[in-house]
Design brief:
Elements lengths: L2 E4 L5 H12 L4 E4 L11 H6 L7 E4 L2 E4 L1 H11 L10 H29 L6 H26 L12 H4 L2 H8 L10 H11 L1 H14 L4 H15 L5 E2 L2 H9 L3 H9 L3 E2 L7
Parallel strand pairs: 1-2, 5-6
Antiparallel strand pairs: 1-3, 3-4
Helix pairs in contact: 1-3, 1-7, 1-9, 4-5, 4-11, 11-12
The structure holds glutathione.
Amino acid sequence: MTVTLFDHPLSPYAQKVKIALAEKDVPFEARLPEALGSGQVPGDFQLASPRGEVPALIDGEVKIFDSSIILEYIEDRWPEPALLPESAAARARVRMIEEVMDTHYEAINWGLAEIVHFGRAEGELAAALRNRAAEQTRRWHTWLSAELGDADWFSGDRFGWGDLAVIPYINGSAGFDLGPEPGTPLHAWQQRANARPSVAAANSAAASMAMGGTEAARAGMQAVRAMLERGEFKREYRDHRLEWMIKSGGLDVVLAGLERDNIRFTPEFPA
Ligand SMILES: N[C@@H](CCC(=O)N[C@@H](CS)C(=O)NCC(=O)O)C(=O)O
C-alpha cells in the first residue's frame, strides 16, 4: 500500500520527510491539502493532522503528524539504509541540530517571508527586521560550520538525519540571498547535499511551486497577498515564529495582523 504524505512543496518540514522517504526508496503519494493556510482543516487531512499542518503521513491505518515524529516512524518502519548514526551520543547530536533548525532557524526564514513576500512591514521597520534576520542567519551559519567541522556530512561520514534536517532551511535562506558564503565548507556541503537525488527532487518540487520567479509566480503571490488582505488566508504565528517577530521588533506587525484578522494561532485542539 502506498504511503500518503500531506505536503506543501515549499514547507521545509515536509521536505525533510520527502528526503527521508526518497533516501529509503519508499514510494509515496504527495497530496496538497485543500484550504491550507485558511485555518480550516477539512476531511481526512484533519484526521491525520489535527493542527492543520503539513507534513502528515498516512501509512495504512497509521496517521502521524509532526515532521520529527514522522522521521522517527520512517526510521523504525523502514530501517535501511539507516539515517540516524549508530551511537547514542551521535543520535542525540543530530536530533539537537534538527531541533534548533525546526525552531530557531525556521522562524528567521518565516519572518523574512512575512516581510518580503507578504508585505507585513515597510520602510524602516522592514529594513530593521531584514537586517536582524541577516545578522541572526550569519550567526547560525557560524554555529553550523562548527558543527560540520571537517566532516563531509552533519551526520558524519554519510548523508543522514543531520543533513536532511539542515538543507531545507539553508536553501530557504539562499532564497533570501542569505546562503552560506561561497568558498566555505558550509557552502560546499550545501552543494553536495543539493546534488543528492533525494534533495534535488524536493528542490525541484519547490521550484515548480515557486515557478522560478516567473510572471506566473508573481501573479500567484499577488493573489495570495490579496487573499491575505481579505483575511481568507491567515499565516500561523505559532511558537517560535511569534517569538521571533516580537523579539526582533515586529510587535506592530503582530498587532496589525490580529486587527485585520489575517494571522492566526494553532487551531483549538482537540476541537
Ligand atoms: N512542528 C511541525 C511544524 C509544521 C508546520 O509548521 N507546517 C506549516 C508549513 S511550513 C503548515 O502546515 N502550516 C499550516 C498553515 O499555515 O495553515 C512539524 O515539524 O511538522
